[in-house]
Amino acid sequence: MKKINLNELISIGLIIVIGCFIISFAANRFFDIDSDFLSASATFFAGVVAYKLFNDWRIQYRTELLERLKDRIHNLFVNLENDYIQLHNMVVIENKMLGNAELISLINLTIDNIVNEIFFYEKIFFQYGLDEKSVCILPITVRKGLSQLSDDLMGKDIGSSDLEEYFKDLKIYLEGVEGHQKIINYKNFLNEDLQTLILDSISDKKGH
Predict the structure, then answer these.
(1) 75 or 54, which is more confident?
(2) Are the C-beta atoms of 137 and 190 separated by less than 8 Å?
(3) Mean pLDDT score of the chain, rounded to an integer?
């Protein structure tokens, strides 16, 4: 967050005092109007400082908001990756058919939580008018990709398929790297994008 240092305060104060003195002198000399330039200077100075403090508060709040969002999304992706690895080991390595339904439900719950956070991130993305070319990955791409991952784990026709057929399809999918790599990429890309937003917020590059 930007700080108001002593040199900045002195510079602002001098500029305001000189400006008010010139205006006061001109008003008295040319229009015969008496004015108290010191009172006017103090009023302007207080207003400028109040504005800068308010602007710094907004920047600090926005930065903290982005930091909390980044941490929540990252932690959720860590949980998702760990559960996905556990599911992979259970199905592919241990060849267990029973018990994976609960783990898949947990994975889907985590995906739902991530999608909710991505919705919020998407609002921030459009509110600040971010350039699509400036990010590693768009929020909508993550949402659609996670929804597809959930569908792949659940099976396309799970309602009409028997358990053995579903387990076979699930094992084939988990033997590939697509699902796990998707999780890793989304986690890393989003973390990098949010870090960039936080740095921009701290430096006030996108301040209002």
Answers:
(1) 75
(2) yes
(3) 77
